[in-house]
Amino acid sequence: MDNKQYSTRELFRRFAPYFKKYRFTLWMDLFCAALTTVCELVLPLIMRYITNEGLRDLASLSVKTILSLGVLYFGLRIVDCIASYYMSDMGHVMGAKIETDMRRDAYNHLQKLSNTYYNNTKVGQIMGRITNDLFDVTEFAHHCPEEFFIAGIKTVISFIILANINLPLTLMIFLCVPLMCGVCMILNFRMRSAFRKQRNQIGELNARIEDSLLGHKVVKAFTNEEVENVKFEKDNGTFLDIKKLTYRYMAAFNTTVKLFDGLMYLVVLVAGGIFMVNGRIAAGDLVAYMLYVSTLIATIRRIIEFAEQFQRGMTGIERFLQIVDADIEIFDEPDAIELKDPKGEISFEKVSFEYPDDHNKVFTDLNLQIHAGEKVAIVGPSGGGKTTLCNLIPRFYDVSEGRILLDGQDIKHFTLKSLRGNIGIVQQDVYLFSGTIYENIAYGRPGASKEDVINAAKRAGAHEFIMGLKDGYDTYVGERGVKLSGGQKQRISIARVFLKNPPIIILDEATSALDNESEFAVAKSLGELSEGRTTLTIAHRLSSIRNSDRILVLTDDGIVEEGNHDQLMEQKGIYYQFYETANALK
Ligand code: ADP
Ligand code: MG
């Protein structure tokens, strides 16, 4: 995964469009924020008025005046409460909606990413990014505009009021602000890098847990529980170290703020006191002044507290962007057309291929011609590139050089959806989704009728064993199909292809986990399925490919032998040796 780092500006620029849909809520939120701020700022003014008037001439303050001021204050508090309620409810909902939108975008993007991406990315890392990391974005999306806005107006208004009460004192206080901001910014920057590391380490931890839990059978078989614990403890310890670092920065940050706000109070206390003794500020004014300085400091404190949330949010957005900015390596060409009812003629023209990030060439200048409707089998040593060859036809990977043609057209000219839609592939490593057997077969053609699903299962030789299970088609297969045997899983994945019923079929060791008897039955069905369709079969058991129109022997040197069974036996080459060895082992 590309762990590109983004500048704060870039993060804001990319995040801002998510507010577009919720403009109204956002404006209302800011409006309410302004209301609550104004309400809060009026209170010290009332206090100032009462104190100054009382000290000047106690008789001038009637109970009526105080009561009206009380009513005014109460009214303002009600407005404040309503506005706060709106902010807290709608503001958070807006944040949650943005989080949902972002998660959707990330998930949709993940669906488009190629095998290469998944080969190089830990699932645990992705999981963290689209779940936990985005939780922080909800808070951020809601609080960020609001907090900055409130802080902005509070600081400006406080400053104006403070300057009005006493300008020299105010200037003294505000001298502390740039200094404080400077120190805070440095610490903030450090905090971001610590949060980044923290998130990344959580991802690593997730990936480690996932890996060892999924591999629990291997762990048990080798009694490596202790080894797993040690590996886990290492990652867990690293996480603790990073957390410690984060807390150290946070503590430094909070202490700095405390230091500075102490300094501000000190200025007000000493300078304000001297000013009062000298008669340069009235007692009521000093009281109001103190209250405003408290408001100001509270605002700064809030911003500081928010700094942590801000950094978490920023890290969350950054990790989100690292997903949505991951290259979609395999995509539709701009002028791609729909592939409709292909005849199924496939040719490889001087195809070279190497896995990205791995510079070992699997094929060099491979030429291969498969006629429409032909049944071609590939045999060869393990690691010879059979699976890789199968993966190139549906464009799970793109060729490095040369091209693959389908009905005379480069496969890149077809839309991925229509190309893959016309190919049925039973992959070597069968994957079942957690759910029922029925759902897993129906995955081959979403929306298929029950009858079709059962029919497909019958043809794949799966119906009988399914009916033998307690819940039949409604049996849960467990995560990744753990509750089924290898052969049963294989038959379900074959049933998917029967249901899909595509014109081109690729079977990558599709019957390898079946016993001889069921293989015979399934092979018969597969024979029927491949009737009149282009079929590419890879099999390690040579008996199942004897009847192929053509057999290719694929080794590290490319296709080294080619012909039907009898021809290859006559050649007495590699195929002959394979066949003899297999027979000798029987
Ligand atoms: P076969 O199916 O004939 O056993 P494969 O096509 O699976 O062989 O593998 C061919 C070669 O490509 C092997 O050397 C293997 O190590 C390599 N290979 C397979 N998959 C990948 C991958 N995802 N990334 C890098 N190399 C791979
Ligand atoms: Mg293989």
UniProtKB/TrEMBL annotation:
Pfam families assigned to the protein according to its UniProt record, in alphabetical order: ABC_membrane, ABC_tran
Segments crossing the lipid bilayer: 24-46, 66-87, 148-165, 171-189, 263-281
GO CC annotation, single: plasma membrane
Residues covered by the ABC transmembrane type-1 domain: 30-312
Record flagged with keyword 4Fe-4S: no
Alphabetic keyword roster: ATP-binding, Membrane, Nucleotide-binding, Transmembrane, Transmembrane helix
PROSITE patterns xrefs: ABC_TM1F, ABC_TRANSPORTER_1, ABC_TRANSPORTER_2
GO MF term list: ABC-type oligopeptide transporter activity; ATP binding; ATP hydrolysis activity
Membrane topology qualifier: Multi-pass membrane protein
InterPro entries from the UniProt entry: AAA+_ATPase (IPR003593), ABC1_TM_dom (IPR011527), ABC1_TM_sf (IPR036640), ABC_transporter-like_ATP-bd (IPR003439), ABC_transporter-like_CS (IPR017871), P-loop_NTPase (IPR027417), Type_1_exporter (IPR039421)
UniProt keyword Cell division present: no
Location(s) in or outside the cell: Cell membrane
ABC transporter domain mapped to chain residues: 346-581
PANTHER family in the cross-refs: ATP-BINDING CASSETTE SUB-FAMILY B MEMBER 10, MITOCHONDRIAL, ATP-DEPENDENT PERMEASE MDL1, MITOCHONDRIAL
Name of the protein: ABC transporter ATP-binding protein/permease
